[in-house]
Amino acid sequence: MNDGERQADLESVDPDARLGAVAVMAHRGSLERDEIERLVGCLVDGDKRVQRRAAEVLAAVGEAAPELDRLLAQALGSPDRRARWGAAYCQSLRGRDSLASIEVWVEHLSAEDSDLRWAAHALLVQHAPRLGPAAIALVRAAVAAPDAQRRKMALYCLRDIRPRADSSEELARLAINDPDVDVRLAAVAAYPVLATDPDRAAPALCACLGDTDPGVQRAAAVALGKLGSAGPQVLVALEESARSSDSGLQRAARGALARLANGS
Question: Each residue of 155-164: pLDDT tens digit?
Answer without folding.
Answer: 999 999 999 7
